[in-house]
Design brief:
The complex is a heterodimer.
Chain A (H helix, E strand, L loop, with lengths): L6 H34 L3 H32 L3 H5 L5 H33 L6 H25 L3 H13 L1 H10 L1 H4 L11 H26 L6
Helix pairs in contact in A: 1-2, 1-4, 2-4, 2-5, 2-6, 4-5, 4-9, 5-6, 5-7, 5-9
Chain B lengths: L2 E12 L2 E11 L3 E5 L6 H9 L6 E6 L2 E3 L3 H5 L2 E5 L10 H11 L5 H10 L13 H13 L5 E5 L7 H14 L6 E6 L2 H7 L2 E6 L2 E7 H7 L1 E7 L11 E7 L2 E6 L6 H7 L2 E8 L2 H10 L5
Parallel strand pairs in B: 3-8, 3-9, 6-7, 7-8
Antiparallel strand pairs in B: 1-2, 1-4, 4-5, 9-10, 11-13, 11-14, 12-13
Helix pairs in contact in B: 4-5, 5-6
The chains are: A mainly alpha, B alpha/beta.
Amino acid sequence: MKLAMNIPLIRLLVIKDWQLFQKPLAAHVLAGLFALGLLGLARPWAFYLGSLLLIVVLVAGSCFAVSTSLLEERKQQTLAFVMSLPVSPLDFTVAKLAGGLLTFGVPFMVLLLGTVVVILSTPLPDGLLVYSLLIYGHVLLAYCISLAVAMQVQSEGWNIFAMIASNLLVNPLIMLLGQIDAISVPARGEDIVWSLPAVAILSAQLLLSLCTLAFTAWWHGRKAAFY
Amino acid sequence: MMAAFAVSGLCKRYPHFALQEVTLSLTEGEVMGLVGVNGAGKTTLLRLLTGIAAADAGSVEVLGHRLPQAQVTAKREIGFASEDMRLYRSQSLDWHIAMMRRIYPGWDDAYAASLVHRFDLRPQQTLGGYSHGQRVKALLLLCLARRPRLLLLDEPTTGLDPVARAEVLEALADVLRDERRSVLFSSHNSHDVEQLADRIAFLHGGRLIAHADKERFLDDWRRLLCLGSVPPALSSWPELAQVRHAGSQVEVKVRRWSEDLPARLSAAGLSVQRVDPMSLEDIFVTSVRAGGVA
């Protein structure tokens, strides 16, 4: 497999994706910051409303990043324009993965850091940090799965199914975390406890995310042509 | 002269369509028109020529580069626009031009500006506000101003109103004055092809049914109106593509015209009343109806 890549053009395609989607993503970040503001009030009603809104914003941001960078490009037939540029399938795959990670990753990291700051600097229990990071870990994994499916499958129906199914699994995850004492009990206290189950779950989420992206890059990069 | 492209034994199979054994080449500086109905395989052939699609069998060489392996190098010298290709509706033409300028070192700003003026486009306006004709012209502008050595255009005039179509064809005619630039454009509108092309290729059902110089096509084909009854042996004459009754007359379409044909027809019992040249469209339709043999 020839690994020579057209780096300047890959960079240009990533910048293009960023320019195309930066305004809607900024709106997502604003909505997320509003949710964090509610969380920071540290009142029961504000906590439930804020956490619900934050999860909705994270899931919506993840779905938006996948659907605009790949599904919409396919639907609007701008993908044909991109493929006509001097890019190989490997260049295109790397650009899409990098662009996707940027458009999803920047708002994701802003909200993740915001969550850390809110938990540590407000009356919310600091132990909630581990619980929150595990939820963020799931959103990241769901995004990587949705992105991989979108790159592989053209059917809009299957893509919507992949996005909804992977993101909705956050509900059973929250329930599962609540059942694991090593995670749920410290979440109510002031100590940040990285128990074995918490480390195992987060490691699995990160490893699966990485493997999903690596497999997608390998699978598409070995193709000689787009069709 | 170098070949702008050469394909040999090209096959590409999809679930409901197959491009079969296409062998075709174009010398640098020539303009080839690819004529075929919808679904004939024109888009598939053009995708193979850009390296976007890989052939199941056969070879593709474009401007000396083997495809799809060297598609990145080849695509730097190719301008490709297809009917199913769209620009970003949320962005302006200026945004697209800035992007092209960064990708193609040979981007010609002065030429781009002249095309903006010629096509009467508003470069600051987002393309979502453009009409279909304006969007096609914008795409064409982005292809032409990169000064490609090979221009591949898939149905460039489809869906355009008569004025926009004339403007696009005029711009293409200007491009064709450059003797080093090669053009392959597909169309189901044979009038456009007849207007611009030096060479013609007919594609039907995934097969190349004919390819030759335009003048040779027009010289070879004739429509004869005759009186008399059709002798049964006429169907076996290889130079005749179609024989049918047209009212009280017999219409004979000839794929290889020769001066002695009227005399031979007369000897067979048909008296030739008129001999007319045929349009490219008529030649194409007759070729298809004759079973894909031109």
